[in-house]
Amino acid sequence: MDDLKHERRAVSFVMASSMIEGGFPIFINQASRVFPMMFFAGVTTFIGAIFHIGILTHQKKLRQHLPLKTWGFIGGVTLCNSVIALLFIFAGTRYTSGINTALLMQSEMLFSFIFFRVIIGEHISIRQMIGALIVLTGTLTVLYNGSFALNAGDILIVLGTMFFPIGNMCAKKALEVASSSYVLAVRHIVGGTVFTVLAFLYEDITLQMFSLVWDHIYLVLFYGIIVLVISKLCWYEGLKDLALSKAVSIMLGYPIFSMIFAMVFLHEIPTVYQVLGMSITIGGLFILVKRSSPSTLPVDIV
């Protein structure tokens, strides 16, 4: 009975994270139409860092003596997931729709398959090859969307997801020693610093930008607290009592929530190609995660 209770609790945590992550691509797409994106990323990432530092302080885990190897892994996930990948995604989302942003971010699973199965050399089963081809077909369907004209924003988003598998591998190694909030705090501090420096170097930052923060505080708080703090902690809490394959399978439903967020907040109606592409991609993802080794699956979503 206790095991069943723990599993239901874990499923609830992962489902909550999935719902929140569904809103992530929609809200950053809307934020890109209001803010200079590097400025927005810098402000919100620092907010997330402050909250994680507060959690560590409350738990008296602010000081953690970590081996140099673990710091290397933390650096890897920070560089790949919190800097490079987000630079591509933030740059690309302003040139495409919120729904496309959500659907194309599922390309991460395809690149995870390629990275772990092809580059590292793990055994590739026929089932996994079929799943990867189905995911690729779904991604191409979304990219096609009625014409063969390639959107630069779509390509940037897909390129951004290429870095997640490397970062996720580093995260998995780092979390064997460091706590979740510690890894996330470091990621957000470094990421926030990089984005802030880039904002002042390449964007026209004025005092008016800070008034925009107040005017659109719901966008700032959603990404800075709901996504970067609550969603990430729900995800890791769920993983404690769930098999990774089951947790990822639940998380794969987030594009459905993305479409709901897009229709409500952006008034975007999904096209036939987007719905078809999402259905094909989710089918391929379920094939990929079924009986896959844990190393193939993502440790973190963004």
Verbal overview:
This protein has one domain (about 1-295). Mean pLDDT is about 85; it is low at about 290-300. The chain has helices at about 1-30, 35-60, 70-95, 100-105, 105-120, 125-145, 150-160, 165-175, 180-200, 205-215, 215-240, 245-250, 255-265, 270-290. Helix 1 (about 1-30) packs parallel to helix 13 (about 255-265). The chain is mainly α and about 300 residues long. The protein has 14 helices and no strands. Helices cover about 75% and strands about 0% of the residues.
Summarize the structure.
This protein has 302 residues and is mainly α. It contains 14 helices and no strands. The longest helix has 30 residues, at 2-31.
> What count of domains describes the coordinates?
1
Principal-axes geometry comes out as globular
Cα Rg: 19 Å
- Most strands sheet: none
Q: Tell me the quaternary state.
A: single chain
Order of helices and strands: HHHHHHHHHHHHHH
- How many distinct helices? 14
Overall helicity: over 70%
Could you say which structural class the secondary elements and strand pairing correspond to?
mainly alpha
Number of strands: 0
Mean pLDDT: 83
Q: What amount of the residues lies in strands? A: under 5%
Low-confidence stretches: 292-302
Distance between the termini: 34 Å
